[in-house]
Amino acid sequence: MRTRAAAAIRITAVRLWRPRSAVRLLHRDAATGLLRLRLESPSDLWRIARFVRPGDRVGASTTRRDPEAPADVPGAERTRRRVWIEIAVEQVEFHGFSKHVRFTGPIRAGPFDIGRHHTLDLTEGDEVAVLKPALTAADRVLLDEGLAGAGEPTIVLAAVDWGDSSIVRLRGRAIEPIADIRRTLAGKRYEGGQAEKDRATYAAELVEVLRREAAPATALVVAGPGFLKEEVVRRLQEADPKVAAKTHLYATSESGRVGIDELLRSGRATETLRGSVAAEEAEVVERLVRSLAGGLRAAVGPSEVGEAVDAGAAETVLVLETGLPDPGIVAILDRAREARARLFVVRAEGESGAKLAALGGVAALLRYDWVSPTRDARRSPGSPRAGPRTGA
After folding, report:
1. How far apart are CA 384 and CA 226, in angstroms?
2. Cβ burial 337-353 (10 Å sphere, 16+ → b, else e)
3. Are residues 83 and 110 in the same domain?
4. C-alpha angle with apex 284: 390 to 136, nearest 5 degrees?
5. Are 34 and 164 found together in one domain?
6. What is the pLDDT of residues 260-271, one digit of tens each?
7. Are 122 and 48 in contact (CB under 8 A)?
8. Domain region containing 290
9. pTM score, two decimals?
10. Which of 282, 272, 203, 275 is nearest to 235 (CA)?
11. 373 vs 242: CA distance, rounded Å
12. Percentage of residues in the chain with pLDDT exceeding 70?
């Protein structure tokens, strides 16, 4: 006799093609822990790859060779049938570049091949059913973030200078490279002639890429250390007033990828980048680093963060995505949620993830000056706690 949960997870998949914005919760059964979701964006793929863990049950529409085909037909030639299959997840793979998530495990429910291993390959627009009898605090953060992402903006960000410019697209959790435009250009003392033509060609190439990529975007941010950013905006106003109208200018000390990282973590473009989780991630980690350097408003490492949470001092708890399966980290996050602290999951890749990893993978921004009763202020010189610190 099938259990209610096993029966509930058999759902007919439907693919809807429309603008992708946020994960859609199609069905939720509180009694069984069944969630039926439609993955609408690359950020949703990132989230579902962290939401589902080994041991969970996952169902999706897939294809599998028909075992009822005649025995004399080679396996490679047997007709593949589209079926709904439920597996017990053993392995999760996230392929950000190709925008795919793969779940592998033995088949637990389906029309045939029960017990055999199968891989569910999901991409944007797919529906998936996830059976999780209990949600941890981290699970709720990922789910709530996805459901709240209906207004998630698409922002094109460019850090430009003569000969070294980078353009990326911010969409939710994703920072997608668009172009790195690097050229060797003659110096300013060689005004006129070929040097001037090279610079005009370089600016025109930048403008063409920005026009194309920024047309469907919510906003365009142009930053850089010199006057090229102003030249780009002037050309945009002449070539495409609609794109120019949603363009914002900011100064940075560097161009290229370094300039983009600088702008994201500086907080200078907070208002323009509002709603971009990727931008917020860089800013909140930078706030953590500044708090560590200048006062007693931060805690780092599982032990210290756990003490801060229990003391009611934690305002925002940051956790590296690789720590989500750790039972000790899960317990801290559950207590933090009960204490009404905000939880923020940080991607492992990129500069922000590297900084948080160096601090133990979990940290907290505090509501007030607080010192752990077990903290040793005289740690190694490389520690963020190395020097004596004072507070009010």
Report:
1. 34
2. bebebebbbbbeebebb
3. yes
4. 105
5. no
6. 999 988 888 887
7. yes
8. 281-366
9. 0.73
10. 203
11. 57
12. 83
Give the tens place of pLDDT for each residue, 180-201: 999 887 665 555 567 788 888 9
Of 78 and 199, more confident: 199
Domain closes at, from 233, 260, 275: 275
According to the 3-state scheme, what is the secondary structure of the chain?
CCCHHHHHCCCCCCCCCCCCCCCEEEEEECCCCEEEEECCCHHHHHHHHHHCCCCCEEEEEEEEECCCCCCCCCHHHCCEEEEEEEEECCEEEEECCCCEEEEEEEEEECCCCCCCEEEEEECCCCEEEEECCCCCHHHHHHHHHHHCHHHCCEEEEEECCCCEEEEEEEECCEEEEEEEEECCCCCHHHCCHHHHHHHHHHHHHHHHHHHHHHCCCCEEEEEECCCHHHHHHHHHHHHCHHHHHCEEEEECCCCHHHHHHHHHHHCCCCCCCCCCHHHHHHHHHHHHHHHHHHCCCEEECHHHHHHHHHCCCEEEEEEEHHHCCCHHHHHHHHHHHHCCCEEEEECCCCHHHHHHHHCCCEEEEECCCCCCCCCCCCCCCCCCCCCCCCCC
Which of 125, 150, 175 terminates a domain? The answer is 150
